[in-house]
């Protein structure tokens, strides 16, 4: 297999998906493109409502070991500002998390497997997962049998990041954090501002909530010096009706993230205590809700990590990095559901562009396309080594 023969198509596919992003559970055209591409290669497709796909080659079903590889499809509700010639044509929608890279890499890997199917050593199943960004996709894929019939021997997932140029990183052990979204409702009492004594200002109380969340990040460390990495933050705030009306309801949306589950639980408890104090001080009623279950942390399998170390060093040399807990991101992934069912490996391909230091989910986020053939080669070697 000479990966350089596929570089031009890799770039073409990546740019197509980047230019035509679709939001979670709306990946209709993305899914249709993938299905047509794979069916031409001889893959059997199992649809997963509404847009997910499970793909396998019939000829490989006689192999004893099943490796499952996931590719996420959804984009983010962000207006792109990169000014790339292949920038998003869909207003308010952008692949600002590298899923365009992931889809392109998975399709070329599927093409190589199809070309080598007579001698390919393992059975491989491709999952094209919708709605990863909203934490919905993995559950749908698993319920559709993504890891069954037969039971998967290993699950592989991969992301792209900008931490360094043209490299690869794998975590030893734990590979993600525990996260959840929270919603805080602040209820006051409406009144005209000319009779302010008859109202209770929910916006003022909400400001104190925001301040308490901000201060918690520092004060919690003093009480829990061994808490590991964590963060509590507010993402949106909505409230009020008109300039001369005291607001009676404000809604804040944010998130809690922590490397350790016990830290996450302690942060939740401490925040609830702070909100109760603000209630007493302001006369408001404050309620914190968690619309969804938490996304739990997952860990890389030890044997799969050893394989990734060998292959990573072979492909990337000293640009391969084996990371520990100190290098963990405060990010999570609904892929923890797959790791609960079988042993798994999470690989990160590093594709930073010098001078372009925009983080994930930024409207100017960019990745270096030169990483693409190296990442496909690495995945191919890991799969054929297992």
| Largest beta-sheet details | 8 strands, mixed
Beta content comes to 15-25%
Number of helical segments? Answer: 9
N-end to C-end Cα span: 17 Å
What radius of gyration results from the CA coordinates? 23 Å
Task: State the helical fraction.
Answer: 25-40%
Side-by-side strand order of the widest sheet: 1-2-4-3-5-14-6-13
Stretches where pLDDT is under 50 for at least 5 consecutive residues are: none
In short:
This protein is an alpha/beta fold. The chain contains nine helices and 14 strands.
Give an account of the 3D structure.
The chain has 386 residues and is α/β, with parallel strands linked by helices. It is built from 9 helices and 14 strands. The protein has helices spanning 7-19, 28-40, 99-115, 137-143, 202-223, 261-282, 302-316, 336-341, 371-385, and strands at residues 44-48, 52-56, 66-72, 123-129, 154-161, 167-171, 178-187, 191-192, 230-239, 245-246, 249-258, 285-289, 320-323, 344-350. It has an 8-stranded mixed beta sheet with strand order 1-2-4-3-5-14-6-13, sandwiched between helices. Strands 9-11-7-12 form a 4-stranded antiparallel beta sheet, with helices on one face. A hairpin with a 3-residue loop joins strand 1 and strand 2.
Features:
alpha/beta, four-stranded antiparallel beta sheet, 386 residues, single chain
């Amino acid at each position: 297999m000479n990966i350089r023969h596929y570089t031009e198509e890799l770039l073409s596919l990546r740019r197509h998906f980047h230019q035509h992003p679709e939001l979670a559970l709306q990946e209709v055209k993305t899914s249709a493109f993938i299905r047509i591409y794979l069916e031409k290669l001889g893959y059997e497709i199992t649809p997963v409502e509404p847009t997910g796909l499970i793909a396998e080659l019939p000829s490989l079903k006689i192999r004893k070991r099943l490796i499952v590889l996931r590719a996420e499809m959804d984009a983010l509700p962000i207006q792109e500002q990169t000014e790339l010639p292949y920038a998003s044509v869909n207003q308010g929608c952008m692949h600002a998390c590298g899923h365009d890279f992931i889809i392109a890499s998975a399709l070329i890997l599927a093409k190589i497997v199809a070309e080598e199917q007579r001698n390919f050593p393992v059975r491989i199943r491709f999952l094209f997962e919708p709605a990863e960004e909203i934490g919905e996709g993995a559950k749908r894929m698993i319920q559709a049998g993504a890891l069954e019939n037969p039971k998967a021997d290993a699950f592989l997932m991969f992301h792209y990041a900008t931490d360094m140029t043209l490299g690869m990183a794998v975590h030893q052990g734990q590979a993600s954090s525990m996260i959840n979204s929270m919603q805080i409702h602040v209820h006051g009492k409406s009144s005209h501002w000319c009779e302010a004594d008859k109202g209770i200002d929910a916006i003022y109380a909400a400001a104190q909530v925001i301040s308490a969340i901000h201060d918690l990040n520092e004060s919690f460390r003093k009480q829990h010096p061994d808490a590991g990495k964590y963060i509590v933050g507010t993402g949106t705030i909505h409230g009020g009706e008109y300039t001369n009306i005291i607001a009676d309801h404000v809604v804040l949306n944010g998130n809690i993230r922590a490397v350790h589950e016990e830290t996450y639980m302690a942060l939740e408890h401490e925040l609830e205590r702070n909100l109760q104090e603000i209630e007493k001080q302001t006369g408001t009623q404050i309620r914190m809700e968690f619309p969804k279950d938490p996304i739990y942390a997952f860990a890389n399998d030890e044997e799969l990590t050893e394989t990734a170390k060998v292959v990573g060093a072979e492909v990337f040399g000293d640009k391969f990095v084996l990371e520990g807990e100190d290098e963990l991101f405060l990010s999570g992934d609904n892929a923890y559901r797959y790791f609960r069912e079988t042993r798994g490996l999470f690989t990160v391909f590093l594709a930073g562009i010098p001078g372009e230091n925009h983080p994930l989910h930024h409207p100017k986020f960019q990745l270096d396309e030169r990483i693409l053939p190296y990442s496909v080669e690495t995945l191919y070697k890991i799969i054929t080594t297992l």
